[in-house]
Amino acid sequence: MNADVIIIGGGHAGVEAALAVAKRNLKAILFTLDISHISNMPCNPSIGGSAKGIVVREIDALGGFMGIAADHSYLQMKMLNTSKGPGVQCLRAQEDKFNYPHFIQETLLKTKNLKIIEKEVKEVLFSKDKVEGVIDSEGKKYLCKALILTTGTYMNSKIYRGEKVEKAGPDGQKGSYGLSTSLKKAGFNIIRLKTGTPPRIYKDSIDFSKCSEELGTDKKLSFSYTTKIYKPLKDQVKCHLIYTNAKTHEIIKSNLKDSAQFNGLITSVGPRYCPSIEGKVMTFKDKERHQLFLEPEYENGNSIYLQGFSTSMDPEIQELMVHSLQGLEHAKILKYAYAIEYDSLNPIEFNLNLESRLYKNFFGAGQILGTSGYEEAAGLGLIAGINAANKILGKEPFILNRSEAYIGVMIDDIVTKGITEPYRLLSSRSEYRLLLRHDNADLRLTKYGYELGLIDEKRYKQFLKKNKNIETTIKYLMLTLVAVFACVSISSCSKDDDDPNKGIGNYYFQLSDVETNCIDANGNNLADAFKSEWISANQADAQGKKAIGKTDNESARAWFNQNINALVQAYDEAYRGKNILPENGYINYYFRLGSDASYGGANEYATIEVTNSGANKR
User: Fold this and answer.
1) Between helices 12-23 and 99-109, what is the axis angle to 10°?
2) Cα distance between residue 146 and residue 547, in whole Å
């Protein structure tokens, strides 16, 4: 059996890659060990988070599927970092671990040009400098024009709990053994990485009265720009917050020999930004507690994910650790935590289009290239699928720059710097994070998705309409809501022989400076127009200044208060008479009463602001 593109692995990377290829009218084969575990969530039951949530928006803007699936199956939706600026705000959703993968599986099975084969791939076939195909566990050969490797954490995977080591994949599934050897023989640099997952707790064994509630955000939020149906806050599930304590830490410190991470069984490196609980306790010894979240895994299920409590401790020690936590004193463990070690390829051997530098038409994506997390995997899978199709169709590689997307940041990081631990995307990794926001992913990337054939005509027209509305609104604001700041000084000065109006202690006023935030339709700055006109109304002489005949602060202030409305009216009429301002523009006047420092006077003054020629405020 032949295909245009073969995808090995049905995780989050494999799904996006397969759909991207099939949408381009190319024949794709997706190999998976178990169809029922396609898009499985073996670790946290969530999509999104810091930077990751923006990646999901970018995937959707490019025509990917993760955002649509996440919006379809969420239990709770929350906008994070709302107390901070828009550059770090991002969306996170608790997902139903049954509905999310089931929805994706149904979609894949109905996708045109895509065939799913439930078999293990044992060997990749190469011809000189190019990939040719694969051989499955039964010895059957499949030929292809391009291949995408998305095996996740399954290659040569081992699960660790205490001193017990088991050859298995995530969630105790079947691992992949043999494929790694084939790749090593072909010359690929195989590296060993590690990750882990916390225990699951029976929901009905937890005393939630001792836990703090964590609610979603009461707004219409979504990952996909196509979503029209939202779940009200009252229908969303609650998460809860608890903390470790001194007893928890003492149990961990006293039993490190029962942790595979510390007893020498695990030799690979785990993710720095998602450490085990024993790793956190030993690394941050000055911390008295660490936060943990209780997250439901199913809408109507009895399983709670103990987020932040990943461990490779022996199950007996896990019992002690869990029971030391407030609210979990009598908790029953549904599934024990474990660490998992697996083979990965070195991403530095791949190009920015995710094609191997060793073999043409061989692409990689997801945790096999050293990343961590569902979102990073999906982003890489989408780009790998796009570029595998481009290669076959004779098109140029599709490469996102660091300034265009977090996906571009991630790819640039891993293929140019390599990795020494599972790579996690963070907002701090992007020097363009103020531009790569949650709210503008469509403006940045939808055009690309349309040009690549992943965004249909109807959706693109809706995007163009939105873009047109934005441009129209910006133009309207620039041309009609004009803010002009006229700084009018009423100052005292020393004697000036060249100007009879400037006597000792004699106050005068002048339009001293003008600034504006408006550029007109021809690109002219209105501030320049004001300065060139040097408008001073009918109270001022040709030089923009006029003596008011007062010689002390008190009398000058009294004069100022009596005449301010007349001053404003005169200036306002002069400005509008010059047709510099539109009818519904507005002027902010700042009148300064005091001394002119340039003439040696004191620089103390009071400021009065008059807006829209209205009442003054002090």
Assistant:
1) 30
2) 84
Do 571 and 546 form a contact (C-beta atoms < 8 A)? no
- Residue 508 scores a pLDDT above 60: no
Helix (H, G, I), strand (E, B) or coil at 397: coil
Whole-number Å distance between alpha carbons of 131 and 353: 16
Which letter, b or e, does each residue of 521-542 get, where b requires 16 or more Cβ atoms within 10 Å of its Cβ?
eeeeebbebbeeeebbbeebee
**Tokens encoding 9:** 């692995």
* Mean pLDDT for the stretch of residues 100-119: 98
**Reported pTM:** 0.81
Q: In terms of Cα–Cα distance, which of 122, 101, 165, 149 is closest to 340? A: 165
Burial class (CB in 10 A: 0-12, 13-18, 19+), 562: exposed
Give the contacts of 397 (CB within 8 A, at least 6 positions apart): 351, 352, 353, 355, 387, 390, 391
> Could you tell me what percent of the chain has a pLDDT over 90?
75
| Cα(331)–Cα(323) distance, integer angstroms | 7
Give residue 400's pLDDT.
98
Looking at per-residue pLDDT, the higher value among 493 and 1 belongs to: 1
Q: Residue 585: how many CB atoms within 10 A of its CB?
A: 19
Report the DSSP beta bridge partners of residue 141.
135
Given a cut of 50, whether residue 614 has pLDDT beyond it is: no
End-to-end CA distance of the chain: 82
What mean pLDDT is predicted for residues 471-486? 60
**Residues forming a β-bridge with 609:** 590, 617
SS3 of the chain: helix, strand, coil, percent, to 5: 35, 25, 40
Pairing of strands 303-307, 291-296: antiparallel
**Owner of token pair 């549904």:** 334
What is the residue whose two structure tokens read 């949530």?
A: 53
Tokens coding 289: 């507690």
Average pLDDT over residues 265-280: 93
Q: What is the pLDDT of residue 472?
A: 85
Q: Is 505 left (phi over 0), alpha (psi -120 to 50) or beta?
A: left
Q: What mean pLDDT comes out for the span 35-41?
A: 97
DSSP readout, 67-134?
A: HHHHHHHEEEEEEE-TTS-TTT-EEEEEE-TTHHHHHHHHHHHT-TTEEEE---EEEEEEETTEEEEE
Residue corresponding to tokens 């990939």: 131
Across the chain, mean pLDDT equals: 85
Q: DSSP secondary-structure letter at 263?
A: S
Cα dihedral 528/532/538/544 (nearest 10): 100
Q: Which residues contact 172 (CB under 8 A, 6 or more apart)?
A: 159, 166
Please state, in angstroms and rounded to a whole number, the distance separating the CA atoms of residues 151 and 155: 7
